[in-house]
Specification:
Length: 746
């Protein structure tokens, strides 16, 4: 019998481009016993599925090290600290490179103006060597590993250009045909530019990894363990074991997954289902670590701890989704696959033209011109504008998006948005407001709570909506329950004056009782208010409200049921319009929620969504998104809660509602700061237009490099003109990036 496949999650250091993901996938995928390899460049992670009988984790990690990458500490906190240290190191290297560039530029300008000093030459040599072999040493190492594996990427092209500058400068020390200062400066400038790109990329990846850190921080650090003799002791949550009991006071986070053995309370577990209305917990009910105990005190028997707890499982789902997220080969990397070999080919052509070609024409090879031309090709070939094409377009798109209250945090989002065909939306907090509100009051025939029979209508027992609200809100005023707060807020908005409640008493999971002006008022669950004797007519009314995804609170005065108050999480006013606009763009909207099917379908019908997946747990949400991604379809996911985080990470484009949790926001590529649902449409237009700008920029960059590289073959292009061409190409790309409009007129 074969053992079940195992999974190894690995944090990888040293990844820099789409080629790295392909290299790792190929190297590990070819190993015997490895079933699947998922690599995330954005988060520098790999998820490896393997047969533990044929491969060990050590062998897999050693293979990564042999490829030239580092394997980070598996401890999440230490791995995060390592990333922070790498970011600080990249920043320091960039500062050194910038300082070297500033000094070399000053020396070059002085030389052009006719100022010469004997120390110029040794300083330029030192600056060039320090930049390439000190500040840029890690780039040189990665380029060497890439060449050894037959991969031609931007690191390789950079080093060819940098070494061309060093060699040209070195020759210039003995041959005045080669402008030494210009060549050395080119080596400094292009290496510093590469350091800038690497620092910016690492900054994005480091910030993105904070989601898991924040998620695990939700679990309290300590718990109150209840000892057999009834005493309590506060201990680290790691010390708690299954079977032990803990006490949770009102307002505290529940520290463990467990089962209520004593007490009753309302618990906010929206992190699981996304549903904003708290769930009443009584003895025997399950509770989840990280949820908030709102009302009564609970004694909880621990059932799951450590890696088996809910929050740890969500963190694992989040990490797996991050690694299994479909990768894209960045457009610039696609171009570099063809561009780098072309530049190297032109460099070789330059040598052939001025050696073999010159010999055939003049009978003598021109080695000086051949070397100069080859070096000029490599210098001219470094794609400065090519590297700026995508960032400048994204900066423009990001700036325009920010004006619309949209934060686009991921470079991949700009490229993928145009290909999205399915938009998956969470319900609570996304399509709805995410908080309970009174939507209807029901008054009518009076019923005796004890007989369950209708009383004869008379003036004394006639009740109005205002009176119903006044009595219910007055009784609920001392309560902290979210449903009570909703009733009180609605009454205040209606301008209703409240009575002073006396003898207030709250029964967790049931409702409240208070004396108002000598009358005993009860507000709460219908079966509790009527003591289990619900008249058929009232039951029908309550069922009708439930069919509309509403929660019913019953109100009774003395022994009479006087009315019902319907409370619901109301739909955002722009939700239906946003769904229609998505359909108009050819996108298919789908609802994916942890809420019950009945409520989900009611909300979906109201906003115009046909496909609904309900009662889906956080880990299952990510799996459902992966299922929708089958066949290469690009999927966007919109959500706001912790339970949405794995799906947001898994989606090709994760979109978080700005009013949502930090975990959701950190897991997303796009954040709708204002919470407007129709901003998804603006984000789609901006992403698509920014990608179009990127393509235009690439063509403009090639207009310079495509002309400059062949000209350099002639040997007539000095390094300083190569830098001038680089400046001109970047300026053109800059003007194009910030010209025109990204959003269509409405």
């Amino acid at each position: 019998m074969n053992p079940s496949p195992a999974r190894l999650q690995v944090k990888i250091g040293g990844m820099s481009c789409s080629f790295c993901t392909m290299t790792i996938q190929k190297a590990l995928g070819r190993m015997d016993g490895v079933a699947a390899v998922h690599v995330s460049l954005a988060h520098e992670e790999a998820l490896i599925e393997y047969d533990p009988a044929r491969r060990t984790p050590t062998e897999l990690r050693d293979t990564l090290r042999q490829l030239g990458y580092t394997v980070r500490d598996p401890d999440k906190v230490r791995a995060f600290e390592e990333q922070q240290a790498e970011l600080r190191k990249a920043r320091d290297l960039l500062l050194w490179g910038a300082a070297f560039s500033a000094v070399s530029l000053a020396i070059m300008i002085a030389s052009w103006l006719g100022v010469q000093q004997p120390w110029f030459r040794p300083v330029m040599i030192a600056l060039a060597l320090l930049t390439v072999f000190a500040a840029g040493w890690h780039i040189l190492v990665m380029a060497a590993h890439s060449l050894r594996r037959g991969i031609l990427n931007q690191h390789v092209l950079l080093e060819f250009g940098a070494f061309a500058g060093l060699i040209g400068g070195g020759i210039g020390l003995f041959n005045p045909v080669f402008p030494a200062a210009d060549f050395f400066s080119v080596a400094i400038f292009i290496t510093t530019y590469h350091l800038l790109s690497g620092w910016a990329s690492l900054l994005v990846r480091t910030r993105a990894s904070a989601a898991v850190q924040k998620l695990l921080a939700l679990q309290p650090a300590t718990a109150r363990r209840v000892l057999p003799d009834g005493r309590e002791e506060e201990v680290p949550v790691e010390a708690i074991r299954p079977g032990e009991r803990v006490r949770v006071w009102p307002g505290e986070s529940i520290p463990v997954d467990g089962r209520v053995v004593s007490g009753a309370s309302a618990v906010d577990q929206s992190l699981v289902t996304g549903e904003p209305i708290p769930v009443e917990k009584l003895p025997g009910d399950e509770v989840i670590g990280g949820s908030i105990n709102q009302a009564g005190t609970l004694i909880v028997e621990v059932t799951q701890v450590g890696e088996q707890s809910f929050l740890a499982q969500v963190a694992r789902h989040l990490e797996e989704a991050r690694a299994m997220k479909p990768g894209i080969l960045a457009l610039v990397d696609v171009v570099l696959q063809r561009y780098v070999p072309a530049v190297l080919a032109f460099g070789g052509l330059a040598v052939l033209v001025w050696t073999l070609g010159a010999w055939l024409v003049t009978g003598q090879p021109d080695w000086t011109r051949a070397v100069f031309a080859a070096l000029a090709v490599l210098v001219m070939g470094y794609p400065c504008a090519l590297g700026m094409a995508s960032p400048l377009a994204m900066i423009r798109g990001g700036g325009e998006a920010a004006q619309k209250g949209i934060l686009i945090r991921s470079g991949e989002a700009f490229q993928i948005f145009k290909d999205v065909r399915v938009v998956v939306l969470d319900k609570t907090g996304t399509l709805t407001r995410g908080k309970p509100e009174v939507v209807e009051t029901v008054v009518g025939v009076q019923y005796s709570v004890f007989s369950g029979q209708p009383s004869e209508p008379d003036t004394e027992h006639c009740i109005l909506n205002t009176e119903l609200l006044q009595l219910a809100a007055s009784a609920e005023y001392p309560s902290e329950h979210p449903l009570a707060r909703a009733i009180v807020a609605y009454a205040r908005e209606a301008g209703v004056d409240l009575f002073r409640a006396e003898d207030f008493m709250a029964e967790p999971g049931k409702g409240v009782t208070a004396v108002l002006g000598g009358r005993r008022v009860r507000v709460g669950r219908l079966d509790w208010v009527t003591e289990g004797r619900i008249p058929p007519e009232v039951a029908a009314q309550a069922e009708q409200q439930a069919a509309q995804a509403r929660t019913v609170s019953a109100v009774a005065v003395d022994d009479r049921l006087i009315g019902l108050i319907a409370i619901a999480d109301t739909i955002k006013p722009e939700a239906r319009s946003a769904i229609q606009q998505l359909r108009g763009l050819g996108l298919e909207p789908i609802m994916l929620t942890g809420d019950n099917r009945h409520t989900a379908r009611a909300v979906a019908a109201e906003v115009g969504i046909e496909t609904v997946f309900a009662e889906v747990l956080p880990g299952e949400k990510a799996a459902k998104v992966r299922e929708l991604q089958g066949g290469g379809r690009r999927v966007a996911m919109v959500g706001d809660g912790i339970n949405d985080a794995p799906a947001l990470m898994q989606a090709d484009v994760g979109i978080a509602i700005g009013a949502g949790t930090d975990i959701a926001i950190e897991s997303a590529d796009v954040v709708l700061v204002g919470g407007r649902l129709d901003a998804i449409v603006d984000a789609f237009h901006i992403g698509r237009a920014s990608y179009r700008k990127t393509v235009q920029n690439l063509w403009l960059a090639f207009a310079f490099n495509g002309v400059g590289v062949p000209l350099a073959v002639t040997g007539l292009v000095p390094p300083v003109w190569a830098m001038v061409a680089m400046i001109a190409s970047v300026s053109t790309v800059l003007l194009n990036s910030f010209g025109g409009k990204l959003l269509p007129r409405r």
